Amino acid sequence: MAQHPPRFLKIVNDAKQRVRETNVDEIKARLDRGEKFTLIDVREDREYDADHLPGAVHLGKGIIERDIEGKYPELNTELVLYCGGGFRSALAADNLQKMGYTNVISMDGGIRDWRERGYPLEKSR
């Protein structure tokens, strides 16, 4: 796995102190139970197009703060964010909380852990 630069890790670790996290097994179990929540992929367009979790909405980290209110105006909407490994999603979740969203969770391990477990993925058409 690529080593992330120390200043990036510093802001990620800072965000993780404020953000609720879950893991891929918990999200898979919740999906299997048919629970209702919004799964948001915060990766880049090309990453999302290559593959993503079933039913995931794409709101890249570059635009999520700008576009979230238009899509999900209710601040208590349950939003589960994920990225490649759980770092970008933690940063995005932290920002959404600063915007007043009260039910944001970051999926630690990201799509990398999901893929390693052989859980199902979708591709963009």
Describe it.
It is a single chain. With 125 residues, the protein is of the alpha/beta class. The protein has a single domain, classed as Rhodanese-like domain (Oxidized Rhodanese, domain 1), CATH 3.40.250.10. Helices cover 42% and strands 15% of the residues. The protein contains six helices and five strands; from the N terminus they run H-E-H-E-H-E-H-E-H-E-H. Helix 1 crosses helix 5. The termini are far apart.
How are the strands of the biggest sheet laid out side by side? 1-5-4-2-3
CATH architecture: 3-Layer(aba) Sandwich
Taking the sheet with the most strands, its summary is: 5 strands, parallel
Radius of gyration: 14 Å
Number of DSSP helical runs? 6
Mean pLDDT: 96
Helix content: 40-55%
Number of domains in the coordinates?
Answer: 1
Class per helix and strand makeup: alpha/beta
Q: What is the oligomeric state here? A: single chain
CATH superfamily: Rhodanese-like domain
